[in-house]
Amino acid sequence: MAAYAAVVSLMNNIDNIQNHPRFSISLDKKQTESLGEKLDFLLDFIEMNHSHEFLETEIASAAYAAEDVIESHIVDQIHSGSISSLDLQTVILDMDSVKEKVVIFKEEKEGLLKVHRQYSTSTTSSTPSITGGGKSTTTMVGLDEELIQLLDALTGRQSSLQIIPIVGMGGIGKTTLARNAYEHGLIVNRFDIRAWATISQEYSVKEIFSELLSRESSESANEQQLSQELYQSLIGRRYLIILDDIWSIDAWEKMMFFFPDNNNGSRIIITTRLSNVAVQFGSSSYFSKKFLDENQSWKLFCEKAFSQEEVCPPEFEEIGKKIAEKCQGLPLLIVVIGALLRNLKEVAKCYVNDLIDRNLILGSWFDGRVKYSTMHDLVRDLCIKKAQKEKFICMMRFRDIPLGVKMECRIAFQEKIPKENYDHELFFHELESASLARSLIGKRGGELSLEFKLLRVSHMIGFSLENIFKHVNLRYIFKPDDWRTTTISYKLPSSISLLWNLQVLVFPFIDLVAPPEIWEMAQLWYVKSISIYLPEPHSSCDQQDEDEFIVLRNLQTLKKVVNLRLSEEVCKRIPNIKILHMEYHPQSSLRESDDTQQGGLLKKMTFPTSLRKLELSNCDLGPEDLRTIGSLPNLVHFKLQGEIIGNEWDPVEGEFICLKFLEIHFCHDLIYWNADSSHFPVLEKLVLLGLSKLDEIPLGIGEIPTLGIIVLDDCSESANISAMKILEEQEYLGNDDLRVEIMFWKKEDLERFKEKAKQFQCFTSNNLGFFS
């Protein structure tokens, strides 16, 4: 897997360089194409030969070396501020050497297989039968009109036997069209007999007859006996025969006499790739399959690649449409590529779940999915030993001087650098020799003032804030808590935009003030801080050149941004944002207008429709604000910490249609919540905290079929009682899937409420919990 990851990483790197919106790195087109061809060849080999350890090591080493050359050139170019071309000839020669070894291995392997086949004493073969109507219908995109026409031909008034050819190139959907007609309810009920056989270029008439008769070929029955049996089974019956993938008229001429014309509306469908074959069947016309148009191709791709929702996530739409376009309207190619992309995601999830099921890793579950995972110390030790054996990572212990780290790419620190009786000078000298280091990971460490030219991952305490941003090749920055850090607020330097491939920026214990240049960092994917102040981006209208207008298409998570005005300009820059946590401080200018006093804080804001998770802190919302949020089409998680202006909330049907999680904190003035099951139709979890005046949770909330849990923390007594009434009613109706949890800050409040709660039948229910 290391070789696979290395090659894919190199390919992605080259693609990022060629399409980077800000930095111009000159690559020779012919050299890039040559390198790409070699990488494709090696990737195919890896996918087909997982067990060749030596060659995989060679491939991984060559790919890593190529990345070193390319990224080293980029870093030098950024620091110098000049543009120079990168000669990939050395990299190509190295890849050629590895490719030559792979070719020799493949030739030797194929030679051994050939010898094995020559001396093999027996072979087995089987042809899977597709006869019968039990298979599920294949998805048809762009075929509805064709299917209707084919059904008309199959059920038309002509009583004589009709032969209906379907013509088109391989993969264009001939078999799919025939299959959907074959399994259509109208056809199933109309014909007494339906049978299917696949012909292909090399065929056996005996095997075809056996397939049509829905039985295994028998040595005791010859071709003549089978043909007579087929004829007798069809005589006098209305039948539909599908002969799929005929390549020559000869095959038909050997079978045609055994399909009787019963003058009762029988039909034969023939699919073929060859037009000259189709015209020889004597039909007045035939179905000629056409390529899918652009819209049909895109629809089919979405159905196959994103099967559950059949909607492409916004961040993948641009590349997804390019993939669909490259398929040039060929349905089979679209189906294969779409299914492959979906399978990769599903396989990854299956691997993680399998490890959890086998207790090799421990999953922390939240809302029905794994939030994060940990592993037992013994399993961790095993993983470390395996990683070190494959030279994937170097685990450093400070009691030993880290000798021999010169060629290490990933270095992890397991303990704190000793303050006394330790040769710090020798330690830093050895660490400085790790010029190829790409990852430095550790929760503890001394003060590191070293620079690592190719560093991609920094998860260290030791780096000073100033030193971190000198590493322009960084992709991931995580600054853990550090008692030495006296900075409460830190202004990110404008030079942060030189980090050409930065994707993750996490400062969980520092307030950040971002410069305007942060809107130029197109590779950003995840940004999180205890608070981060973002400036307004420059208006795109002021930028004459469209190339200067950079869109952060990769940005999906932004936590916890302070006093951000979500203008149309901001939304243009973050069109694919999925998770957004915003906080508004009392001194914010956004709170000073009269509109906000009436709950119009969000009145002049625009929310990206891609949002799936929205959290608002210190934010007071009025009815119009709530309608704005409720109209977001993809919102599944909404958390509000603030006030709902006024004492009443009247949701509107048609809002919050996808919301699964709703959490409301400290809306002290809210008394009446006039909602029912139609207002939150797929809600799964409801959390209410500090609603001291809430009269009740509407009984209709309990009728939401997906609702699994209601949590109340320090809410009014009447709200707590209403939750128990909901539970009692649902259990009476046979719903045992709903759970209610009621929490109190003081133990005496808990005991006082439990005395009152004893009057309810659900008091002893296993689905009711009290906590303090």
Written overview of the protein:
- This protein is an alpha/beta fold.
- Among the domains are: 2-119; 144-288, P-loop containing nucleotide triphosphate hydrolases (Rossmann fold), CATH 3.40.50; 294-355.
- It has 22 helices and 28 strands.
- The protein has a 17-stranded parallel sheet that branches. Strands 4-5-6-3-7 form a five-stranded parallel sheet. The protein has a two-stranded parallel ribbon with strand order 1-2.
- Strand 8 (362-366) and strand 9 (369-374) form a beta hairpin.
- It starts with a helix and ends with a strand.
Task: Give a brief rundown of this model.
With 772 residues, the chain is α/β, with parallel strands linked by helices. The chain has 22 helices and 28 strands.
The count of strands amounts to 28
What is the radius of gyration?
34 Å
Can you tell me the residue ranges where pLDDT is under 50 for at least 5 consecutive residues? Answer: 119-137, 592-598
CATH class of the domain at 144-288: Alpha Beta
CATH topology of the domain at 144-288: Rossmann fold
